[in-house]
Amino acid sequence: MKDNFFVFSKNKTNPKLLVFHLTLLFLDDIQKIRTYQLYQMNNETNSLALLAFVYRIEIITLPILIIMGSICNVMTFIVMRRKRMRVSSTCFYMAALAVTDTLVLWTGCLNQWFYIIHIPTVVAKSNFTCKLLPFLFVFFADAR
Description:
The chain has two domains: 3-41, no CATH class; 58-142. Helices cover 69% and strands 0% of the residues. The protein contains five helices and no strands.
């Protein structure tokens, strides 16, 4: 990453922006990009402590969401595929929804969590997987 990626704006009198750029000097490159993205999404946030707090919460909540969502989706699939539930087309669609929701969790949230905790993901392994996993995420998310 280039050192001049985060340059000071023409308006050097903005103290919030100056503090933001000075804080970025002490972060590694991935944290810089993540913090910059969060800052751009909500440039009214005047505290980097709040951004760091959100970053930490994301690290904790994503695995909980993946585990609990997967367990609940498996239970939903089992219930919807019972013998007396199979006669209803609604139960079939609910079972299919449970499967696609689980795959969305595994392709989207798991990949995001790996990115946040700096674990190399399958996406970066080859050009094929770089295109396949985002496609699968969008495909399963839109399959609803």
